[in-house]
Amino acid sequence: MNTPQKPMQTLIPWALAFMSTIAIFSIFAKEEVFAILSAPQLDCAIKSSSRLNGGSVLFLGIFLFSSIAAKSILEKSDKRTVFWAAIFGAAFSLLGTAGSYISAWNDLETILRGNLKFVFVPMFAVGFAGCAIVFSLLCMFFSLMLKNLESIPACSPPHRPVLFYFCVLAVCWGAFAYLYGLAMPFDTMAQISQGTFCEPLSDNNPMFLSLLIGAFARFGGAVFGSMYLGIEIFAIVQMCLLAFAAAYALFLLQSWKAPQTLIYISLAFYALHPFIGAYAFTPIKDVWIASFILLYMLFLFDKAVNGDELRLSPKKILALAAFILGMLLSKKTGSAIFLFSLPFAIFLFKGERIKFAAVSISVFAIFQLMQSFMFCFAKVSEGELREMLSAPLQQVARTVSKYESELSGDERQAIGEILPLNDIPRLYNPALSDPIKGKLRADVFAADKIKYAKLWLKLATKYPLTYLESFMLGTIGYWYPDVIYGTIAHDSYMETLQRFKSEGRPYCDANPPEQSKTFFMARLYKAIYAAKTIPLLSLLFSIGFFFWIALLCVYQIIIERAWKLLLPLSLLLAAWITCMLSPVHAELRYSLAIFLSVPVLLCLLSVPKIRQTRE
């Protein structure tokens, strides 16, 4: 006999569905609603409302589907799941709603400070509240889906070897490389120029990787009469490194007894995603550091899953040292990522913390000695200070662009000492700091850093919303899914070489190839942009969406009480922070480590040992 439901149990799903539908409508039609509510006359409001579809039957369908889904999800979720789903739902809603509004208007400060704030604030609040409900339900649905994965058979011996996955990836990426050709980023050409000693070595790029690619270029020139061929060999080595990292990830998932179906889906993701395929054969430092971050994170996850069963044997110590050193040598941000994650990694190795810390710190000390040797004896120049100042320079530039007339004489003079004050409004680009950063008088700034730091803080207290706006616009692609951005490298070797020489930069390739951009390279870049307009499919190309999936995995780890799994994620958090401090609002190569890690996280949450052992 069925137990009769209380009235509140029946009304709650309907109320949640109603709020969700209103929120979805307010987000998608916010510009039209805002135009209507702020229109000076009724006829203007009527004209604005012609684009509204609030009476569409589609919204009735959304309401009915949402009510049924909410009722089903709430019945199957416990209180703890609902509590954490509400917290993470609110976080997702804040990111989504803020991203939607800032991308639509690019200037929220004017609205918030004017009379229209009485229209804007309620709209934002409705959108936030309703979306929080939607995302909370999605979080609970995600948990229920993972519970259903228990019925999927886990991997059982014999395992497929690393070589199997490596060969599959190498074949797929090799075919992609044959069609796509070798793309050449500008930064890589600068590294080749330095690595072949056409230009002095600089710490702006990872000097050891510059020397490595330069060695391959010189080898190609000496043996085959073509530096380009040597660079292609370097790209093949890079592709093998990335293939090994991904193959090792899939092999470990097997050993942890993740569902075989999910492992094959992850293999397909790695093998067929055009982002990964394109960058696998594009010689660039970001692929190297992403590969080593993935390998180091897998090492830590292996310890989190197996606990005391995994000991630091000599082989494990060598692997650990190689992963850390590779991460440090691949890119300047590797040091920051390593140091940020080190305390969490040490805590993970209970019983062997001293040994783990000794190995890790020793590797870092060796790296520092290598750096010091290069600076002292190889005459490597220090990296430019401007590379670390993207966010604060953009904030000052936005303040000048909007409020130059309000600045005091002393403030204008101080800004003019380090930046061309009159040119700032023309140079300022909210999505890219290079135009402003490139004009910084670094020597003047370095001579009195405290003075200019005080100026930055003073302007921050006067224009806090402007500073927040600048930071949001400069980082939006890393935390909000619906952002259009440059995706993959799509300039051929000759195109980049011509641009490089046009800037007066020396380059030592005496016999460059007569290479033109391939048909596939020319078309794929546009095809990916077109794919970004297709619902659902576009999410596969979104940095922000993959960041949200990583957050969703954190939510599930908390639900499962698998606390140790949070410690290796400090690597991804550090990598994401470096993205947020980068000079561009969204750049795939900076966030490649997050792209590579998401399949591992999703498979890891379905590992029986994780679901059965709640620590």
Give me the secondary-structure topology:
Blueprint: H1 7-28, H2 30-37, H3 42-48, H4 57-76, H5 79-105, H6 108-113, H7 117-148, H8 162-180, H9 186-195, H10 207-223, H11 227-255, H12 260-272, H13 274-280, H14 285-306, H15 314-330, H16 333-348, H17 353-377, H18 390-403, H19 409-418, H20 424-427, H21 434-437, H22 442-447, H23 449-462, H24 464-475, H25 493-502, H26 519-531, H27 543-560, H28 570-580, H29 592-604, H30 608-612
Helix pairs in contact: 1-4, 1-7, 2-3, 4-7, 5-7, 5-27, 8-11, 8-12, 8-13, 9-10, 10-11, 11-12, 11-14, 11-29, 12-29, 14-15, 14-29, 15-16, 15-17, 16-17, 16-28, 18-24, 23-24, 27-29
Structure description:
This protein is mainly α and 615 residues long. It contains 30 helices and no strands. The model has no long low-confidence stretch (mean pLDDT 86).
Alpha-beta classification: mainly alpha
Q: Please state the CA-atom Rg, rounded to the nearest Å.
A: 27 Å
Poorly predicted segments: none
The count of strands amounts to 0
**Percentage beta strand:** under 5%
Largest sheet: none
Q: What coarse outline follows from CA principal-axis ratios? A: globular
The helicity comes to over 70%
